[in-house]
Design a protein that fits this description.
Elements lengths: L22 H35 L18 E4 L5 E5 L14 H11 L11 H13 L9 H10 L6 H17 L2 H11 L9 H9 L8 H8 L14 H17 L5 H9 L16 H15 L9 E3 L4 H16 L6 H13 L9 E2 L1
Parallel strand pairs: 1-3
Antiparallel strand pairs: 1-2, 3-4
Helix pairs in contact: 2-8, 2-9, 4-5, 4-6, 8-9, 9-10, 12-13
């Protein structure tokens, strides 16, 4: 019987003996482990920090339920009996316009330049934030990442202060709005609330102030000009600085092409369109300043300062055709005064003096 022999086989299969690794590899492995541990620790710390911030900040957020029934400041307006505007009083010139009455071209222009993914994100556009971060690293002209919802939160409830605290509140309010309101409601508030220069609030008012036309009648070029105003409404509007307003308009048109809202042919036509900007007061408005001022005093005596924010519309019995004739006759008489037509001037003055007596003091409605 032969004695059994046991072969000595080295047990190295599957062995991970770090001692056999080069020194640089061992240090690299240690460094990777340390970095991973630090990232996990930072992640946990960030989660704890965000949780604490939310628990402290969220209860202090303003109640935004009133936005579901949005009622901004609206001026006092005085009209003739045939619905011609003869006077407007209030710090904020605004024409509250439902989202369904805002033309598509105006909505498209705003979305193209401000928030192209408005209907697909949940309030904070993470892709937009990443894109803006990359763009800001490689370009001299910085890009923003605020969505339309974030702008509404900032403009309605927050100040213009630049701080991390305000930004946290802005993001929290954004999520709260997206939960409470529909996208159309948020967009309607933005289109009516945003300041656009020259005391114009909202795009409907800006269209009348800058172009002398209703918002439903604006062209692609005009919509692009208006959509470019929110960035610098006081210093880059077409009245104060036509060059800056034009440059901003061209950027909006380019974005409308990139986002597919208009064709290349429409863009070329819009770039070539010669805009008629109304730089001075509206000379076509009916001249009945005395009547309008009388109404303002009567309404103010009843409502106080609220007269300028409640959106009261006052209708008088004054007829625009007759008032216009009286104004022109008086003006002509004064111009001809040196020609010896003094009697005619007296008659015209008497005609104008009788106009305020036709006021209907109680023809007011909200």
């Amino acid at each position: 019987m032969k004695p059994s022999t046991t072969a000595s086989v080295p047990h190295t299969a599957g062995r991970n003996d770090r001692s056999t690794l080069p020194l640089w590899a061992r240090w690299g492995l240690k460094l990777a482990t340390w970095v991973a541990g630090m990232l996990v620790a930072l992640g946990l710390a960030l989660i704890i920090l965000v949780t604490v911030a939310l628990s402290v900040a969220f209860p202090n957020l303003p109640d935004i339920s009133d936005l579901s029934d949005y009622r901004p400041k609206l001026p006092l307006r005085v009209y003739s009996s045939d619905n011609v505007l003869i006077g407007e009083f209030g710090e904020e010139r605004r024409n509250l316009t439902p989202i369904d009455d805002i033309p598509k071209v105006m909505v498209d222009a705003v979305l193209a330049i401000e928030d192209a993914r408005f209907f697909s994100h949940g309030g904070v556009d993470y892709k937009g934030v990443a894109r803006a971060a990359v763009a800001n690293l490689g370009r001299t002209r910085a890009q923003g990442a605020s969505t339309i919802t974030m702008q509404v939160a900032r403009n309605v409830y927050l100040s213009a202060e630049r701080s991390y605290t305000r930004k946290i509140y802005e993001v929290l309010l954004t999520f709260k709005m997206e939960h409470l309101l529909t996208k159309d409601q948020i967009l309607e508030i933005y289109m009516n609330h945003i300041f656009l220069g020259n005391r114009a609030y909202g795009f409907a008012s800006a269209s009348e102030i800058y172009f002398g036309k209703q918002l439903k009648d604006v062209s692609v070029a005009e919509a692009a000009m208006l959509a470019g105003l929110p960035k610098a409404p006081s210093t880059a509007n077409p009245v104060v600085n036509p060059k800056k307003a034009r440059a901003r308009q061209l950027i909006v048109i380019d974005r409308m092409v990139e986002t597919g809202f208009i064709t290349t042919a429409q863009a070329e036509s819009a770039r070539a369109e010669d805009l008629k900007v109304r730089a001075g007061p509206d000379e076509t408005r009916l001249h009945a300043e005395y009547v309008a001022e009388t109404v303002r005093q009567l309404v103010f005596s009843q409502y106080g300062e609220e007269a300028y924010t409640r959106g009261l519309n006052v209708y008088t019995t004054l007829k625009s055709v007759e008032q216009d004739a009286a104004y022109k006759a008086l003006r002509k008489g004064i111009m001809d005064l040196n020609g010896g037509r003094f009697i005619e001037v007296q008659k015209n003055l008497l005609t104008l003096a009788l106009v305020p007596s036709c006021l209907k003091k109680r023809s007011m409605k909200h």
